Structures are given as structure tokens and as C-alpha cells.
Amino acid sequence: MTFAHRHLLGIEHLAPHDITAILDLAESYVEMNRQPAKHSDVLAGLTQINMFFENSTRTQASFELAGLRLGADVMNMAMQASSVKKGETLIDTALTLNAMRPDLLVVRHPHSGAVDLLAQKVKCAVLNAGDGRHEHPTQALLDALTIRRAKGRLHRLSIAICGDIAHSRVARSNILLLGKMENRIRLIGPPTLIPAGIDEFGVEVFEDMQQGLADVDVVMMLRLQKERMDGGFIPSEREYYHRFGLDAEKLALAKPDAIIMHPGPMNRGVEIDGTLADDINRSVIQDQVEMGVAVRMAAMELLARNLRSGPEGAA
Amino acid sequence: MTVTLFQNARLIDPEADTDAPGHLLVRDGKIDEALPENIEFESMFRARNIAPETVTVIDCNNRYLAPGIVDIGVKVCEPGERHKESYRSAGLAAAAGGVTTIVTRPDTTPAIDTPETLEFVRRRANEAAPVNVLPMAALTKGREGREMTEIGFLMDAGAVAFTDCDHVVSDTRVFSRALTYARSLGALVIAHPQEPGLSRGAAATSGKFASLRGLPAVSPMAERMGLDRDIALIEMTGARYHADQITTARALPALKRAKANGLDITAGIGIHHLTLNEFDVADYRTFFKLKPPLRPESDRQAVIEALQTGLIDIISSMHTPQDEESKRLPFEEAASGAVALETLLPAALRLYHSGQISLNALFRALALNPAKRLGLDSGRLAAGAPADLVLFDANAPFVLDRATLNSKSRNTPFDGARMQGRVLATYVAGQAVYRRE
């Protein structure tokens, strides 16, 4: 199994066989993570730095756990509190990091493209943990693994992605990934939250949630961020919930065995009805969190293999 | 009396609409006459009482000789940010690019909005730059869109046009008064047509590419809305108006109507919007971040067509120096703009080599039209016009290396690009200010 990438910056650069490779390896880690002794040494001796320029609890914890279970030395750097405030540029940060000689760098940044920029300047493997509105590749991969396990396949499914598509890196990465795997993608949301030109991505756009959910296999809800309301994208939370919130009535239009997904953290009563989110027969939201650790373990292992087999690793 | 004969040239005269072999006689810094290819030199000199031995002869080797470029909208970073570009470095860059007149922007720090600052700038420019420098002044104080500047005093001090550059005067009342006042003095107002509410924070043109890259984007319609408003104000005030950059297909019908209705309006475009499109940004290359942002290819083709028909009058470099620190940032945070004085002509020649525009039409937009709009005598090869000239090889291929640029800032999107066409020499008032080794 080869994975010919130095970094994991986005789904855009991955081929379907890359995606399958990560998911297949992740399956083995799902099994391992369910054992009492969940530890491997594939990253032993390697240093992983988690650099979050934007608040995150869940993603950072997931990456940290993934690194620890594979035996890496993991360090977290909360970049908001540190030198960024002192005016250090991203390039300076990269140079500083190079001197610390990390092997794996996990980065989240509020600006689209910032992780690409950092990756050009550092010598280690970079994993994008979310950049602006651009991509969040490990989220799309964990969603894919969740779907594949729930539905038994990752192709020819009808998948609805609902909510704030315009500002969502999760949506972008999912559209790219699910498109590459040949699924039918439907985007549902108010027109103010649907990005321009998105129909050219080979998706169908629905402004009416009832129509959009008809006979889908997967309902993927997105988080509605509070600041979107101040920006005048939607009139109010209650109108949004009425038209685009997922409740039992709307879900009834999807296939009877349709699953409900959400990248978290959820706004219960804004984009999703609380009892639906907790419905163990339909909601796979907890599975997504579990798959997240496994997928991140797999991605880091594949990148680390390339690190070791490269000229520096051989020396 | 000094006499120079440019012999064996291929003469481009956009005014006469000619592109033919010939010779150009220059006397005391002014063009005497464009001579036909087969002229008898001895009798020609005799008829003019010129002693042949006093004539400096420049053999042009059948290369193109055209009026020097008049570039409206060059940013020189004095006062304020001389480390980015000084009058000296901008002047050298202009000379190397075949630009004989730079018309400078007032978006410096502080803005050029008083006669005193303008005089400082003119003094600096005349000492340091080998080419003609004509300053523009701000239309409103501090380019803040609240109070008009001393347009009369600034004109006396030498301001050739008034502009707030990329700041839109969003208060329509302030803008209409400034236009009315400028009209009474015959001043030219240059504006950036844009709806500022829509374009706030935008780093790209909305559409598939911006969505894929996750960049905040502005609809191309914002340009048309800005232009529509400005056209209404010109109709209301009768002002002389030039739109700095018309870059979208959507804005063209309005421009066409305004011209047909006899309004005193002209339009420009930056060279990058004629030669690049939004996909050139690729993986967040900030040297391609411009204001307005690069457009889809369909817009680029539409504005090229508008240039062919003369609907768009003027090509500018929109030369905007930025240092590495302000460009080596995530795309949204990076500064906008690109240097272009030295790449303007080779980039413009791409349109000639692709068969989309004749050299005459190109120099009409690069030299004649901007000169006419500013009331200058240059931009043509007619008798009495200043001998501001560019000698170039339209075909010489090269790969641009930004390290070779004269500009202090080297933020060009053309680094490593294959280009065709090189400036061999540049003359201002008959004197060589640049010669390619």
C-alpha cells in the first residue's frame, strides 16, 4: 500500500485509492481502539506538534489521542495565546518549528490557505486540521469511514449536506471526498449560506429542505455558527430551525434507514432536534467521534511511513 | 541645436494609425518628422539647413519605435514607505519598461492631499527619476471620503488628476460635490468603480474557484453597481471622469451607453486583468492578489474585446509595490497589488502575439489615449510632440527573473513566466534614459 503524499492538506489532492487506503488502515485501528490495551509503537520516537491558531477542543483532543496511542511524543501549542499576539508571522513560526525538528505537525488556522503556506516552509509532514473555509480533510475522512461502516459502501449513496455550506470547511472537504467516491450529493440551505458557483462541483442545490431530503441515505447536518446571524445571513435562529433544522417530520422524508451525522459541537434546537441527535437507531454522531481517532491514527501512520522511507529517515 | 535621426525603424504611430518602416527625425527633444523609408537623407538635411555631420544617428535595426508609454496610476511609495519604492527606483523601472511618463497615485502614507505634500513629491521626483513624473492628488482629504481637497491649489501645484485610488467615496453627496467642484476647474477625476458594501473583505471573485479555495469573494456585479452610480453622478454634474479599472463583462454595457450619451467618461484597465485570470492564484499565490481580484476567463476575454473596439481606452500597469513581509501571509491577510512597470510592455505584447490586438491599437491604449486624457502632447509621432520614445524588439523571448527588476519591491506575478518582447532603449525628450546592454 503506497500513499504518495508528503502532507495531508486537503481532499482535493487525494485520489480515490488514497482515500480507500486511509479508510482501510483506519478500520484496523477501530478494532485496536476497542481493545483494553490500545497501544502501538508505529510512531515511537517521532514528535507530533499540534498547533491550533483557532479554538478547538474536540479535534485537538482527537489528534492528541491518536498520536499518543501510536507512541508519538505529542505536544500541544495553543497559538492564540502565544507569539501570534506578539506579531510573529506564520513564516517565522514555521522557521522556529523547523529548529525544534518535529516529524508531524497538525495545524488549524482561521484563514484559508494558511496551512498550505506553512507546509511550504516546514520540513516535516503537515496535517491540516482545518483552515478557514477551505478544507478539513480528516473530518471528511472520518465521515466517510462512518458512512462506509453504517451503509456497507461508500459509493452510489444519496447524501444530503445541510446548513451553512458557505462558511464550512467540513462541507467543502465532504463534497470533494464524496464526489470522488461517486456519490450523489445534495446541498440544502438558505441561499445566503450557499456559496457561488457551487453547482459546478457536480452537486444538486436545494433551498427547500423537504425536497432536498427526499429518499437520501445520509443526512449530514452542519453547525450554524452564532456569528453568521450577526452577519445578516439568516433572520433568526427560530426561523432557521423551522425551515432548516432537522426534526422527525423532515427526517421522515429520507429513506427509512437514513443515518444522521453532525461534525459537532451541536446547537440543539437550532440545526437539529435534541432527541433526534440522541436516537441511537438513526444518529451516528458518537460513531463519528470514535472514527475520528482511528482515521487520524491511519493518516499519521501513512505520512510517517513516508518520513521514514525518505532520504532523511534512511540516514 | 541637437538633431537625432532614428534610422531604419519600424514606426508605430497610434495617432496616424500607421505601422511602417521609416526614420524619425528629432530636433531639440521634439519630433521633427516621421520620414518614409526611401527618403534621400542629404536633400532632406539640406532642406532643413542641418549639417549632416552634427546629426546623431541611431540605427534601429528594423526594430519597432513607438511613442513612450504614459502610465496612469503608478504607486511610488514616497512619502511613507520608501523601502518599497522610491522615485529613483520607480523611475529606473519605468525607463527599463519603456514608460516615459508615470502618473503617480496619491495613496501614500500620508496621502498626497495638500499642495505642500504635492510640491515635495514633485521636487523629489524631478531630482530622482529619469522619466517624466506627473503627480495625481487625492480627491478627498486623507482619502477618507468626507471633505474634498483643495482642488484648485493642487492643480496650480501640478496635480494632473484627482483620485482616492481604491477607496470609493461612498458618501454620494460628498462625491457629487467634489465632482461638481472639479468640473468647474476642468479637473479630471479618476475613480475606482466598486460597491464597497459588497466588496468589503473580499479576496477573490465569487464563483467556483473562490468557493473551492474557501476565500471570501465579491460578485463581479459590484463593479457594475459602482460604475452605474458614478455614471449617474457624471450625468448630474458634467464632470470629467475616468474609471481606473473596468475588469468585468457586466460593466461594459453601462460604459458603452454612457459614452454613447456623450458623457465625458473614459475607462482603463490594469495589465494583469488583461493577461491573467482567477485560476492563476492556484494554491493561494499572494503575488496574484490584486484589487479588484482577478476575474474568470470569460471576463478577461470580454475586456480584451472592449479594448479592441476602443470601449476601454487605457491600459495601465497599476504598479503597486509591496514588500515580501506584506505578501508572505495567508491569502486573506496578504496585501494586494503587483509591480508592473517593467513587465507592462512584454505582458501587453501577449495580446499582440495571440493575434488579439494590433500594435497600433496597443499603443493607442498605452500611450496616445492616456496622454490625450491628461492633455499631454505625447503619445504620438507627430511633428512637435516630445521625443518620448520606446525602441523594442517585439519578438525577443525571455524568462522573467524577478531578481533582475529595478523596482525595490519585486512582487510580480510573472516571475518565471515566458515572455516575448523586450525594450531595447527608452528616450525622454530625445535623450536615452535606458539602453539594454
UniProtKB/TrEMBL annotation, chain A:
Pfam family, one: OTCace
Biological processes per GO annotation: 'de novo' pyrimidine nucleobase biosynthetic process; 'de novo' UMP biosynthetic process; amino acid metabolic process
InterPro entries: Asp/Orn_carbamoyltranf_P-bd (IPR006132), Asp/Orn_carbamoylTrfase (IPR006130), Asp/Orn_carbamoylTrfase_sf (IPR036901), Asp_carbamoyltransf (IPR002082), Asp_carbamoyltransf_Asp/Orn-bd (IPR006131)
Domain Aspartate/ornithine carbamoyltransferase carbamoyl-P binding: residue ranges: 6-148
UniProt domain Aspartate/ornithine carbamoyltransferase Asp/Orn-binding: residue ranges: 157-302
GO cellular component entries: cytosol
Molecular function GO labels: amino acid binding; aspartate carbamoyltransferase activity
Keywords assigned: Pyrimidine biosynthesis, Transferase
Coiled-coil residue spans: none
Binding site for carbamoyl phosphate: R58, T59, R108, H136, Q139, G264, P265
Catalysis: reaction(s): carbamoyl phosphate + L-aspartate = N-carbamoyl-L-aspartate + phosphate + H(+)
Binding site for L-aspartate: K86, R169, R223
Pathway(s) the chain acts in: Pyrimidine metabolism; UMP biosynthesis via de novo pathway; (S)-dihydroorotate from bicarbonate: step 2/3
Family: Belongs to the aspartate/ornithine carbamoyltransferase superfamily. ATCase family.
Subunit structure: Heterododecamer (2C3:3R2) of six catalytic PyrB chains organized as two trimers (C3), and six regulatory PyrI chains organized as three dimers (R2).
Protein name: Aspartate carbamoyltransferase
Biological source species: Pontibaca salina
Lineage, highest ranks first: Bacteria, Pseudomonadati, Pseudomonadota, Alphaproteobacteria, Rhodobacterales
Automatic annotation (TrEMBL), chain B:
Gene3D superfamilies from the UniProt entry: Metal-dependent hydrolases, Urease, subunit C, domain 1
Keyword check for Phosphoprotein: no
GO molecular function: allantoinase activity; dihydroorotase activity; metal ion binding
Coiled-coil portions: none
Highest taxon of source: Bacteria
CDD domains xref list: DHOase_IIa (cd01317)
GO cellular component terms given for this protein: cytoplasm
InterPro entries assigned: Amidohydro_3, DHOase, DHOase/Allantoinase_Hydrolase, DHOase_cat, Metal-dep_hydrolase_composite, Metal_Hydrolase
Dihydroorotase catalytic domain location: 63-248
Enzyme class: hydrolase
Pfam families hit by this protein: Amidohydro_3 (PF07969), DHOase (PF12890)
SUPFAM superfamilies from the UniProt entry: Composite domain of metallo-dependent hydrolases, Metallo-dependent hydrolases
Listed name of the protein: Dihydroorotase
Protein encoded by which gene: pyrC
